[in-house]
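Handout, section B. The chain below has 431 residues.
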Amino acid sequence: RADVKIKYHPDKGRYLVVEKDVGPGEILLIEKPYSSILLPEYYATHCQTCYQRVSAPMPCWCCSKVRFCSDECRLDAWESFHKIECQQLDLIAGANLGKNAMLAFRILTSSGKIYLEYVVNKVKEELEKPENEGGGPEKLGFNEEGCYDAADYRTIYTLVGNTKQRGVGDLFKRGLMAAFMLKILELTPFFFNGGSDPRNVKVQDKILVGGILLTHLQNLPCNAHEIAEIEIPSGSVKDSIQSEIGAASYGTLSLINHSCDPNVVRHYHSSHAVVRTVRSLQAGDEILDNYGYHYAVMAREERQRKLYNQYYFNCACIPCNNSWATYTSLSQAAVPLAGTQPEQAKQIISEHHKATKQYKKAFDHVLSGKFSMFSEALPILLEHLAFLDKNITRPIREYNDCQEAVKQCYSLEGNSYRTKVNSKKEKEMIV
């Protein structure tokens, strides 16, 4: 969207804002990942390229490790990364290095050494430029035309890695992982495709590639995103199970900062990320995601500790600063916004009472799993969120319930599958 812009602040780096008012339920961003992986435990059930469940799997031409849903996906994977990884996949997946290491490996195999070397050298040149010549941290990741292109590797290479905040032990461990992964790369056609003799790889090539691996082993834990799939039992939507089936690196999505009360939600269609609003935003508001620590389900002290341990920042969002309660302790009483005149407050409470009847009906449709009713329920839920944003003081339990119902509606449009339980308590996929 043209009204989503990148801004910069010394305290929080690059971030995204909206330049006009946006209501709940609007799509702000759709992004294809620069690179992505399927987790090894899903190799037998999901396509290696598009991450959809496969009912008639197609094997690789050369290995029996992975599956594909079509010849197009098989060819796409082979051309982009699998021809390099194929013969060493047991070693890559079996080393138990973790998803971020596997994603770092995939970034390299899908990019190629020649392109990586070109971008790294370009970024070094740009970092040396003074601000009056187009340099400076606010222009990090932008290409020569001044465009921030998520398909450009420099948007991934320049993501924050928090090197200075890491301890010696942490850096040593990641350096050791990078050296091990470099040795695996030497066993593949990676360096040969990059113009090197695979039997005698030059030291400067090893230093370059090892350094890139180490960069990503630091910046992916803070910036990589999961690719999720939701399993919906036939009984009730509230029993849905969300599973992480993959991981991906997104150049633009990674610029969205955290809040314990996010104003957007992410869903995945294949590996594409779709970001929608779940609150009303005003022009100039920052787009805020949640990094897995929501105020409604985790106490403030625990959120702060976990966020600092992984992302190296102290959260100063509204729920943290105002010590909002977790879900079970939230107020259920609707109170008009502070400063509302008494007569207007009475009118708001009356309107809220009427709106709540429609909202509860829509909420029950979602909770009962009546999928045919979701399209009817969603506009009512979004309208109710907008009403609460405009008139009612937060936090309030009703707001959280409404947001979660909206998220469920959108999750069904993304990676999802429905199951039913037969008499033997076995799951059967509904095609």
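Note. The longest strand covers residues 225-233. Compare this with the example in section A.
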